[in-house]
Design a protein that fits this description.
This protein is an alpha/beta fold. The chain has 15 helices and 18 strands. The longest helix is centred in the C-terminal third of the chain and has 29 residues, at 510-538. The relative contact order is 0.11.
């Protein structure tokens, strides 16, 4: 310091020059830090993930956290020169079920926004979502922050006045799933259907029924809904008997095990003859949702295999399970939650949800690059403007493609699968096309489960003779079969006869008793046949 003071005294001009140069360097450094990001700096990006760590849901972050961490790392590798990513987790370990998280969403997210939020150019939420969609969407829309869900689709996404900043990469697309149902029914001209909804199933199944019912009815189709509760009873005889009398096409919404029980019972009741169809939805492959197969390794496998010839499965194609070659299933199934620095026991990874989580980060990177190239003003990176860039387009991610419609919902190639009677395995026979109106293309022939050497004809929406064999050509042919009214009349007569018989029994021998009974039956049958013939002649 003394040397510096001496030089300053001896050479005042040089000292001033040093000070001037230092000030210039400081000013230049400040300017460089604030220069346009396209030339010198980076855009600051904060991505927030909120969720649960629990075994109560497959959306838990100990299942999906490793995938999100790897995707964030990939984002930094691909886009680090222009964007500096901070990945923030909002986790309250005391919350273990979806309703609890939903009740605390407003507090947790507001705390982040007002107290913990970093200063950034871009904010986005990427999260699996549980049941908090409505509350979180309300907050983020008001703050103009982008939201990408990776596990849950929501009907409100189709109203952009309500969800202006929200979209989804979830593999559970209601648009595609419902579209496949409608396209399949229209393709085979099935206009009278029964829906069986299992109220014991995961809550994610409920919107399927709620949206499918009005969608089919607005087309003028006849739809009947049966609600069952498999946790209380898996006896579906009553529903199947009713189904026999009003339809030939049954749509089941629920888990795999109750569905297997239903079709086994249908087989035992004679409702798997090639004239009946049972369609079930496969949201995606998951042990939690059950295995849609006849093969359970129990004593019912043989009859279940025959019953499943009448089964068709609506579900996504294999693309939703795609993973990039820069990761492995082992790396994705560690159960590690980085925000808590703790590993939890993790079951087999749910590839559909893992892939969707990673795809959200990768798609975000593409859109941010485009936005920065077009216009780097702050307004361009607000939630509403960013969300619009995602809509109605396809993204090539190298290992797979992701397509979003004009509302930000993912379009998935749903397929209709049929059991191969030779191999006993399901194979895709129809695939939905993304056109308007949605239609299907044929991939393979269908086995309609008819008897050997049958015509293998497509089951009719209603048989030529009607559901009860009492219409069309069947109404004109003589029949000795008892119709319900006639059977009731006969039973009434027989009941009265038996009462008389019981009253008279003490006064007659066994021989006399049998004679009276035979006489009464003969009289009743003669009267019944007379009435039947009279009706036929009158007709």
């Amino acid at each position: 310091m003394n040397v510096w003071m001496q030089q300053k005294a001896m050479y005042p001009n040089v000292a001033a020059a040093y000070i001037g140069v230092a000030q210039v360097i400081q000013f230049v450094a400040l300017v460089v830090c604030q220069l346009d990001a396209r030339v010198f700096g980076q855009k600051e990006v904060e991505v927030v993930t909120m969720g649960l760590v629990t075994n109560a849901t497959t959306f838990s972050l100990h299942y999906l956290g490793p995938a999100l961490d790897l995707a964030a790392a990939r984002f930094r590798t691909d886009h680090g020169q222009r964007f500096n990513l901070t990945h923030t987790y909002i986790i309250d370990p005391s919350l273990t079920i979806c309703p609890e998280l939903t009740s605390q969403t407003s507090f947790l997210v507001s705390e982040w926004y007002y107290k913990k939020r970093r200063k950034a150019d871009v904010y986005a939420f990427i999260l699996p979502m549980c049941t908090e969609f409505g509350e979180l969407n309300r907050l983020l829309a008001s703050w103009d922050i982008l939201m990408i869900t990776t596990a849950v689709d929501d009907p409100s996404l189709r109203n952009k006045l309500v969800t202006p900043t929200a979209l989804t990469t979830a593999p559970t697309s209601f648009v595609s799933l419902l579209g496949m149902y409608v396209a399949t029914l229209a393709h085979f001209n099935w206009t009278t259907v029964v829906i069986v909804h299992d109220q014991s199933a995961n809550s994610g199944f409920f919107p399927i029924t709620d949206q499918l019912m009005p969608l089919l009815r607005e087309r003028g189709w006849q739809v009947t809904l049966f609600r069952v509760t498999s946790k209380k009873s898996m006896n579906f005889t009553q529903e199947l008997e009713r189904f026999r009398s009003i339809s030939r096409v049954l749509l089941f919404v629920g888990h795999a095990q109750p569905f297997r029980q239903l079709v086994i019972q249908a087989k035992l009741l004679g409702l798997c003859t090639g004239q009946y169809v049972y369609i079930v939805v496969s949201v995606f492959k998951s042990k939690a949702l059950g295995d849609l197969t006849w093969k359970y390794g129990d004593e019912y496998d043989e009859i279940a295999r025959e019953a499943f010839r009448s089964v068709m499965i609506v579900g996504p194609d294999a693309s939703i399970y795609a993973l990039s070659n820069w990761t492995t299933t082992k790396a994705l199934s560690t159960g590690y939650v980085s925000a808590l620095d703790r590993a939890y026991p993790a079951a087999d990874p749910l590839l559909a949800l893992i892939s969707a989580a990673m795809e959200a980060f990768l798609v975000l990177g593409q859109v941010l690059e485009e936005a920065l190239s077009d216009d780097d003003t702050a307004e361009n990176f607000k939630g509403r403007n960013l969300a619009k860039r995602f809509l109605d387009r396809r993204y090539d991610l190298g290992f797979t493609e992701v397509t979003l419609d004009e509302f930000g919902q993912r379009l998935i190639h749903e397929e209709l699968s049929d059991l191969d009677p030779v191999t006993g395995e399901f194979r895709a026979v129809l695939r939905m096309q993304f056109i308007r109106p949605k239609s299907v293309i044929k991939l393979a022939n269908i086995d309609w489960a008819g008897p050997t050497n049958s015509s293998n004809a497509i089951p009719l929406s209603e048989p030529l003779c009607g559901f009860l064999d009492d219409r069309g050509p069947c109404a004109q042919r003589p029949s000795l079969l008892l119709k319900p009214p006639e059977l009731g009349a006969l039973l009434t007569v027989l009941g009265a006869a038996l009462v008389c018989l019981c009253l008279a029994f003490p006064h007659y021998s066994k021989k006399s008793h049998l004679g009276i009974l035979h006489y009464l039956i003969a009289v009743a049958e003669l009267d019944f046949r007379k009435r039947t013939v009279s009706k036929m002649i009158a007709a």
